[in-house]
Design brief:
CATH architecture of the largest domain: 3-Layer(aba) Sandwich
Helix content: 40-55%
Number of helices: 9
Largest sheet: 6 strands, parallel
Number of domains: 2
Organism: Candidatus Portnoybacteria bacterium CG10_big_fil_rev_8_21_14_0_10_36_7
Order of helices and strands: EHHHHHEHHEHEHEE
Radius of gyration: 19 Å
Strand content: 5-15%
Protein name: Haloacid dehalogenase
InterPro entries: HAD-like_sf (IPR036412), HAD_sf (IPR023214)
Pfam family, one: Hydrolase
Shape: elongated
Length: about 230
């Protein structure tokens, strides 16, 4: 009898290139509002991310809209707020997916259940995942805790009972914490791409691949020598 397998896949920087998202959004904002506005938008976004531990675009939009209203001596002009919200709702996030992401998800689904895990503002994250088409691809099996997704793994394990779990992630420190907490119960797969690619090291996790598309050549469950 084949073991029941579940794949937990991180979304940001594992399936989607967040640096590309940031650059393209900044380009659109700069074209409409100018460089100074864009720099301030990115500054506010970074400050709020550092304070909260997650990206909060609605709060970023609210703050810069307040600043714009103050600068233009307006107390209630919703134009900037509406325009920026429309930008995020209509942004083509699917153009920022890493190569062959959809094929990888379909490939993994032939071996077990695929669950997308991300963290941050639920409204924004859901828009992003839905707009990429990934939400429908995994039939809505998406978990979006506000922050600290590691702390939510007991709930995930209970919700998706399996014989074997794999966690696919780009951040090595997150994978190490999962390994420390769950040992062999959750197998760790490191995808060395994007922001954390310079610190890629082979042999530390159960499997290490350079790109997410490299998983297309892997069969599951993993054999001991796969790493």
């Amino acid at each position: 009898m084949k073991p029941k397998i579940t794949f937990f896949i991180d979304f940001d920087n594992t399936l989607i290139d967040n640096d590309k998202v940031k650059k393209q959004i900044a380009k659109i904002i700069s074209k409409k509002y100018g460089r100074n506005f864009t720099n301030r938008f990115l500054e506010i976004n970074k400050k709020l991310r550092d304070e909260k531990g997650y990206v909060d675009f609605p709060a970023t939009i609210a703050q810069i809209a307040r600043e714009e209203n103050k600068r233009s001596f307006s107390t209630n002009n919703p134009k900037v707020t509406h325009e920026l919200h429309d930008l995020f709702h209509n942004f083509k996030f699917n153009n920022c997916l890493f190569d062959k992401v959809e094929e990888v998800i379909r490939h993994l689904a032939t071996f077990g259940a695929v669950i997308i895990i991300t963290e941050g503002d639920r409204h924004y994250q859901e828009i992003k995942i839905r707009n990429t088409g990934i939400w429908n691809l995994v039939v809505g099996k998406v978990e979006i805790p506000l922050k600290d997704k590691i702390a939510h793994f007991p709930k995930f394990l209970k919700k998706y009972p399996s014989d074997i779990y794999y966690f696919i992630e780009d951040k090595p420190e997150v994978l190490r914490k999962i390994g420390d907490l769950y040992g062999g119960k959750i197998k760790t797969i490191h995808v060395c791409q994007g922001h954390y690619s310079p610190i890629c090291q082979m042999g530390i996790f159960d499997l290490t691949v350079k790109l997410i598309k490299d998983l297309l050549g892997i069969s599951f469950p993993l054999k001991p020598e796969s790493s």
